[in-house]
User: What shape does this take?
Amino acid sequence: MFELLGVSPQALFGQLLLGVINGSFYALLSLGLAVIFGMLNVINFAHGAQYMMGAFVAWMCLNYAGVPFWLALLIVPLIVGGTGIIIEKLFLSRLYHVDHLYGLLLTFGLALIIEGLFRHQYGVSGLPYPNPLPGGVNLGFMFLPYYRAFAVVFSLAVCLGTWYAIERTKLGSYLRAATERPELVQAFGINVPRMLSLTYGFGVALAGLAGVLAAPIYSVTPLMGSSLIIVVFAVVVIGGMGSIMGSILTGFGLGLVEGLTKVFYPQASNVVIFVIMVIVLLARPQGLFGTPK
Amino acid sequence: MTSKNLELLTIAGLFALLLIAPFAVYPVFLMKVLCFALFASAFNLLIGYVGLLSFGHAMFFGMSAYVTAHAVKEWGWPTELGLLAGTAIAAVLALVTGMLAIRRQGIYFAMVTLALSQMVYFFCLQAPFTHGEDGIQGVPRRPLFGLIDLTIDLNMYYFVLAIFALGFAIIYRTIHSPFGQVLKAIRENEQRAISLGYNVDQYKLVAFVISGALAGLAGSTKAMVFQLASLTDAAWQMSGEVVLMTLLGGLGTVLGPAVGAAVIITMQNYLKGLGDWVLVAQGVIFVITVLVFRRGIVGEIGAFVAKMRDRGHKSDEKPEALSSAPPH
Assistant: This one.
């Protein structure tokens, strides 16, 4: 087989695949953050904790109730999204009239509570989740595990579906209108407070979904969310939260870049996204898809 | 008596208490409180007086701790030079990260500082001089100016108190200077400050550097007190803790951060054996403070005192740092 700069194609494509998988989680999470921010003007710091919750609820469903992965893929986002709606009703809805930073601080507190509770209950060593789709196919230049292929295709489909729902449907147009002028939309008889709850619930459900998808790939641990959310914040700064498609593209793109870095300069793979963020801040402070104020 | 005199009187009283405190309370605990009080006060300079929420102040705290510990232990530098080196590094780091972070506002500023500090964290994790997970242990407390034996905890305590007093004085002076007034103007209405001809970015950057350098001084001092610099000091949880201390004590109040630090450190001490419940308790305090008393402990007391003093008179002074949502 040929080698590229001393890297075997197996290793290269293996890392690229892992990069795309990470990218699909970045995309799902930054998409959820963007949807929530667009509507509520809140940066949801609990997003990582809610992603972790998704993985844990899937694990609990399997181990305590025997719910298989495919059913969990459907119901876990609903459960996690439901907790999101409760959070919005109980806490976030009280903060819309004060500075947006308080929303960030509140959700940071919630993230600490969620992470602390799961750490207390399950410890920090990971729990295994069986692969629901074992096996794979040898493509000649690389081995492609079925489940990983599924995870990428599925999250891409969810991302595109979300984009379609927001940009091309009537419900989405209400949502965009309420983002711009909530009072006006309310005056047309649309229940804006309920829309806010549902939007937050939907964003949180996306995080939960990403968690379920991640469970068979990474081990399920209470720490899986907090390290990820910081990278996702950097992704959001790079992409800017103005555009749904922008979040998706930035997420997948940065996952790929991170995968490539792992192959060619592994020492920098932890920080490459932050370095890109620094470059973007210098060259285009509003973000790749953001609009200057 | 004006409210400024009342404030000064309270500060003087508290310092008098701190002078005799080590005879009643374990000095190492008090030193920890003082380090974090300085850390939180430095952080408050940004959030309380410029309205910038930094979620990455652990990078200054942790980096300075490492530099001081390394200089004193490996290079054999005297204590006072080690502290200066740590503070200087924090100032340089704040200058570089500040120039990047002030390019964005509001929540983006918080996310950028968080990401930058995570970058510093990974640097600390991988750089050889920090000794990874072990940290730098057993840093010697060399005699201060070659004269005062700092291995005696009581001597160390008064040295730390002096450092805290110095840092606190710098912050107090900054807040009450014309420079500080401009900072408040930026917090209240950035566009108006720009239209009045102030170079807003420059003011923000200077405030960021002062805040970062003093946070570094706190980290360096902590490294000398515990003779240890570790990854905990640079991790994002530390950034969260300093936010919590300041919020609980009162954003934009002079004494709030110190009070918040004392409360949180005391709580951590009591809950030490309970492991992960500390995290939960901190989260609960966050949620309750944000929902119920956004002005924090000192802010609420200040508001109460102001209400008692001039009933019916003007009470337009709002200690709440972030009182209303900015217009879209």
About this structure: The mean pLDDT of chain A is 90. The two ends of chain A are 52 Å apart (CA to CA).
